[in-house]
Amino acid sequence: MEKDNLRKELKVSAIENGTVIDHIPSNNVFQVIKILNLDEVDNQILFGTNLESQKMGKKGIIKVRNKYFASDEINKIALVAPTATLIVIKNFEVAEKKKVAVPDKVEKFIKCFNPNCITNHENIPTRFYVIDKTDLKLSCHYCEKITAKNNMTFMP
Amino acid sequence: MEKDNLRKELKVSAIENGTVIDHIPSNNVFQVIKILNLDEVDNQILFGTNLESQKMGKKGIIKVRNKYFASDEINKIALVAPTATLIVIKNFEVAEKKKVAVPDKVEKFIKCFNPNCITNHENIPTRFYVIDKTDLKLSCHYCEKITAKNNMTFMP
After folding, report:
1. Nearest beta carbon to residue A50 from set B11, B33, B42
2. Can you tell me the distance from the alpha carbon of A58 to that of A10, in angstroms, rounded to the nearest whole number?
3. Cα–Cα distances in angstroms (integers) from residue B42 to residues A36, A52, B32, B38, B103, in the given order
4. pLDDT confidence band for A13 (50 / 70 / 90)
5. Pairing state of beta strands B93-99 and B127-132?
6. Is A44 within 8 Å of B8 when comparing Cβ atoms?
7. Going by C-beta distance under 8 Å and a sequence separation of 6 or more, which residues neighbour residue A91?
8. Is there a contact between B45 and A42 if contact means CB atoms under 8 Å apart?
9. Residues of chain A contacting B12 with CB distance shorter than 8 Å
10. Which backbone phi and psi does A79 adopt, to 5 degrees?
11. How far is CA B85 from CA A70, B25, B74, B128, in A?
12. ipTM greater than 0.85, yes or no?
């Protein structure tokens, strides 16, 4: 009976050492993968999307074996997955658990909303200062225009 | 002791009903996801990449809950994952198991190698006839040039 229950629970197995990113909005799992370049690493990775979550209805989860992320690296995902929790696993135990936090600066992976901005015409990586972390407003380093949540697009 | 062994094995859990795509080359898991549009479905999905495989060294696996694929849909992935095995799961049991097969025709997701081809200048989906399934050679319906494995690029 217990075995049956285990089998019916669609879950992503435990890892011994590494990083778990939990509570990702289901629609944004692939953006998170892209932002963290997980499609290009050699580490073992498990992903789940559209998993049931009591808190969120549906959620995504990513488990990366034997990899730890620097804060500024992981915080980039706060832009697409503000609900995400970062869990550091060591020897199957939770060594650290924290919420991701919107960073002060954002580089490269978001497009400037202003069609006339130099970053949309020359091969210059975008660069923004986050001026509102709650409503997500980014001020462009080059043209000073504000790119906000509702007009934010991600570079491929 | 048995529990410990289970925990140390990084594996993707069982599904009750649905499709498992196993033995995907690790580097091509995200291409398979893209080809099958799995980044846009509401089904629960589990993926693993860089998993250990006796046969392949490293492999990827994708499990999609409550979804079955038509042959021509699934065979598209043979172009990037010729080693893939398709397993249909019903009530936790293997109901069907087969290798993917390179299809006779390929539409849309591969770019024509010929820079002068109309599909590279106008908004026309590409269309190829597979003239060699072993070495993967595709003949373009429009310009008749051959796109082969070593110059095949996938549409984003």
Report:
1. B42
2. 13
3. 23, 12, 17, 9, 27
4. low
5. unpaired
6. no
7. A16, A17
8. no
9. 12-13, 46
10. -70, -35
11. 37, 11, 10, 24
12. no
